[in-house]
Request: fold
Amino acid sequence: MGVKKPAPSSPRGRRPPKTPLKTLERVLSKAGLGSRTEARKWIGSGRVRVNGKLIQTPDHWVDLARDQVTLDDQPVKARDQIYLLLYKPTGYITAYKDPEGRPTVYDLIADAGRWVVPVGRLDQDSSGLLLLTSDTRFAERITNPDYKIPKTYLVKASTLLTDEQLQQLRDGVVLNDGPTQSAHVKRVRDSAKYSFIEITLREGRNRQVRRMINAIGSKVLKLVRIEIGGLRIGDLPIGHYRELTSAELTMLGVGSSQTGSTRNAELRPARSKSRLSRDRVLQSSSRKSRRRRSKSHLPSVD
Reply:
């Protein structure tokens, strides 16, 4: 019987099976130092070393249990995960940078001191609850429709909606990417010309609420997300953020071992000084929502 030859080693850039390895760019991003795009730039510019050796390949595999990574000769260490709740104003886009120079949600968390990614999105014309985190598994749990995490929105429609139209939303409407799942819908109130409703979804398609309202013959004039999985904005001021508490993380399915970075929901000021409860979300005037971005954004469905 012939002697069995040892398996050849894996070439650089390919991950050997069943090993606790991460790519170098991911190690830097996971440490909360910056985005993976920024990490690739740092690596390419010669600022990163592994075990003292200059590495300029972003997909170089690193064994965190044995390898020492440095950025500008400073050790890169794993850090506790961080989970933020931001009350996003209108006028901000959910992106790190914008080619058109529009303000982004990262302008509002500039003093967070850690790299985080948005958990889902709110478009520029929408406001409300936006989660940001360094925990990609948590982000996947919240955004993946398989987990059926409910998300609730306050909507001002451009017309008076009939009971039949609300029932259409509850039963599901047909969009260009398929029929929607059933939704929980309730009428908040009607004015002389507009209906104000609350809608809860368990799926997360792009601009879904706006497209659903279009499908029943109306349009969204104002849209505010007020709740994700039982987590509500509460009295958090518009344009501010805070860390989630251990209790909130447990409610959202994060284990207690992952809550080390929370600090009793410490409030972090961004640009606004206004406080906006649920009632004020419904009652603040559209005139206020059109103030300059340097002032308080008071998203309204009035």
